[in-house]
Amino acid sequence: MACSNEKLQALCLSAAAQIKSECAAILQQDKGSSKGTEISGLEGCGEPLIQLLGRQASQLISFHQDDSFSTSVKIPLLLRRLDDILSESYSRFYAYLFKDLPVRWRQLYTDASILKFALSYLFPDARSAALEASKETALDDMVKTLDLALILAGAPGEQRGRLWVDTALSLLEESCSVAESTQDSIPPAKRPKLSPPNRYGKTVSRWHTSPSFSTHEPFTPPINHPVRRIAPLSLSGFQSYMDSFPRGPSPVIITSLADTWPCFNSNPWSKPSYLLSRTFSGRRLVPIELGRSYVDTNWTQRLLPFRTFLHTYIDPPSFSLPKTKSQPTAYLAQHQLFTQLPSLRNDILTPDYCYTAPPGHPTNPELDQPELDAPQLNAWFGPAGTITPLHTDPYHNLLVQVVGRKYVRLYSPHETERLRPRGKEGGVEMGNTSLFDVGVVEGWDSPPGGGEEVGDGVKEFKEVPYVECILEEGDTLYIPIGWWHYVRGLGVSFSVSFWWN
Amino acid sequence: MELYATGLNAWGQLHFDKDEQSNEEPDDLSTFTRVLTVNGIEGVHPFPSYTLVHTKASGILSAGLIPKDDLPLTTLPHPSYSRFAQTSNGLSIINDTHPPLTNLSSLLPQPPWIPLSTLFPPSITSTVTQLVSYTTGFAALTCAPSGKTQVYTWGDERYAACLARDLTSTFPQTGFQTHADAVKIETDPHIPVEAITPGIVTDLSDLPTGPITKLAAGGYVLAALTAGKDLYMWGHPGRAAASGLGGLGVSDEVIPVVIEDSDVEDVAVGEAHVVVLTTSGEVFVIGSNSNGQLGLGGAKSAESWTRVAVEKGDGEIAGVAAGPKNSFLLVRKHDGQR
Q1: How far apart are CA A457 and CA B10, in angstroms?
Q2: Domains of chain A by start residue, with CATH
Q3: Which portions of the sequence form the region Disordered (chain A) (predicted)?
């Protein structure tokens, strides 16, 4: 325990020293007229911000060397200056389209976050006093500081970046000795600080006895045009399947392709207590979509601690209560959770099928994306009633159902025009999303604004052919590139999607 | 005259007294404090990390950190500062039709400065009297020989509310370069030229209290002042609210701002705060006080227009200015000193 403490202290101080020297080197280079090789990803943030960041790093180091009262009174200003840098870099995230945002602003955000974390960790008392916060919320805040860098900024940086953040978080978790426990109802502070964190493998039986998510489904749509279900194919068999359609492959469910993954067995994602144990007792922050569907006007996104998300929106389940306006549907959707939480990544495997050579877009080659270096993983975790509106993605997709069941309806890319893709809305391109709301058209949901708005062309829309399925635990749905899909969580549901090309 | 200031001082940009400099990390000011006494102040120009004060007798005074790249900008005469502007997403525009800016663009470093003449035909460029920027775009004020003024806006279409105009009302293209050409915006065929080419804010063309005399902009909020001392504002409601300016109630529609029925003498817009001087000499503020920029002491922010008491002796406040996170008041003393 002392060991992880010392390691984390050293990690914090070495990051501060690195930042200090990188900033000094950038300023030194700026004084000379010649531009040499890049010293740091921070270059280009401008002399004032580099100087300010470097000064804060330098102060942090000197405060640590002289930890007296006269330094402790200076800590609140240091913290405010780091917040100033965070707010300055964060404002660029809005000023630029994310794809055009220079990486230096994301690194500046990350390095300021690292210093802020280091300050909180190295001077816990001074910081708690400054914020009038308890030790427990201080710990939550420290985790939040680093999670924001991961989620908002993507934690770039060669010297520190994601690797530093991941290391710091696991050392912090160790040093807090927050025992992974099945009893998630007990606040972490009251747990005995005895056992070191358990690693999976030893603990199968304990997850076995802890409760699972509810399997209640308030509504289950009928299936009239089922997607074909097949047993796993060999790699070459799957390649032949994709190549066997002259107008592009059709969706298919591959059964029992994934059911040996740890997430179904030793490390059960169906158990809230297991998920809490993998999220620093639920402290880790996750991006949550609030609202019925991302095309609705009252839809928003928030960052919540995993435990808040779980306890407020998923478990205990809300099925016994009528859905009220005050409790919108919350969905952890299209989030690269496994990059943020590497320990959960070990519970799943990348299907071999992602290493095949799939065909391009069947109708519009312009939509083909540059080849991904590796399959892109996203997590989809939410309560009953989550909806992803009818849309299409520029990748082939393997959607693996890990917990609960989901309804999926699919339309061929050849029907694109009849699905009425949206245009640009509020400066954001929405052409990959249909104007039609499958749930409303079918009468499963009331229109988002209330009232009778069903809209034009519904009759024509209902004539467009489609296939549909209920994805069961362990099923893998292959969604070929360009296929439009509408996805609806029937009960508590956790899926993983793999995009590849 | 005296200069009072409050707010962000991370680079010592409120410390004009060089003797007082020390190795201590400079802290912000949370109330309006006298930071400079000097005769004949012509103008105050706050930049993110430094402040320039133009004086008749003592030349240009500065405080804070002037980045090397900005040095060519710090020796210009006072009127030049309404002729160039930069956004936070890397766009910089310079009205190079007036000396001494004519040759300046070549002296300026990256990012490349776009001459205003690439956006407007010459007949209009020559009438531009003021150029301001907000986070993702620009506004320009033109004044025709007849005295009639127009306000043009252009910028990122995602925050189109800051443009306060119908995007189809864009200035007709007559062979001059579009903004898109000028900045060589990479190939997003989805970005409509209408948003990033200057267009007239027709709501400001014919106001009851006369032509526009001043523009101010910052963050996602813009302001225009008329000859008859009325204040009009507009901006992006979502971004304004997120930054702490929700109380302002701006939208894509230009609205008159009424503060206790007072006429407005001057206005300044920061990144997330607004400072107004009324004709009766009172200062009102609204928005974020994260760094003390409102001068309200410890308050976190002001949701509505709040009067600030300024301990300024017997002087009279003549004007206001704002940096991204700080505020300035220009005070003229009564004892005959100018």
Answers
A1: 59
A2: 2-177 (no CATH), 229-500 (2.60.120.650)
A3: 182-201
How do strand B149-155 and strand B199-200 relate by DSSP bridges? Answer: antiparallel
User: Could you say which of B27, B136, B158 has the minimum Cβ distance to residue A77?
Assistant: B27
Any B CB within 8 A of A73 CB: no
Contact A96, A41 (CB under 8 A): no
Which tens digits make up the pLDDT trace of A56-114? 999 999 999 887 777 888 899 999 999 999 999 999 999 988 888 999 999 999 999 99
Strand partners, B330: B3, B319
Between CA A169 and CA A175 the distance in angstroms is: 10
What is the number of other CB atoms lying within 10 angstroms of the CB of residue A404? 27
pLDDT tens by residue, A157-203: 889 999 999 999 999 999 886 434 434 444 444 444 444 444 444 44
Domain that holds residue B232: 87-257
Residue A209 phi, psi (nearest 5): -90, -10
d(CA B186, CA B44) in angstroms, rounded, equals 37
Size of interface A-B (CB pairs under 8 A): 63
Q: Please give the residue that has the higher pLDDT: either B121 or B66.
A: B66
Q: Quick check: A94 contacting B, CB < 8 Å?
A: yes
Q: Do B94 and B222 fall within a single domain?
A: yes
Evaluate whether B298 touches B30 at the Cβ level (below 8 Å).
Answer: yes
Any domain includes B270: no
Distance from CA of A92 to the nearest CA of B (A): 7
Nearest to B158 among A48, A78, A426 (CB): A426
Residues B200, B253, single domain; the answer is yes
Least confident of A136-140, A219-223, B218-222: A136-140
How many structural domains does chain B have? 2
In a domain, B149, yes or no: yes
Whether the predicted interface score ipTM is above 0.90: yes
Report the distance separating Cα B291 and Cα A274, nearest Å.
Answer: 43
Cβ-proximal residues to A425 (8 Å cutoff; 6+ apart), any chain: none
CA distance B143 to B121: 15
Whether the CB of B184 is below 8 Å from some CB of chain A: the reply is no
Same-domain pairing of B205 and B94: yes
Q: What are the angstrom distances between the C-alpha of A76 and each of A19, A72, A109, A131, A495?
A: 20, 8, 19, 9, 43
> Is B267 domain-assigned?
no
Chain B environment of A428 (Cβ under 8 Å):
158
Shared domain check, B202 and B226: yes
pLDDT at B195 over 90: no
- Of the pLDDT bands very low, low, confident and very high (cuts 50, 70, 90), residue B179 is very low
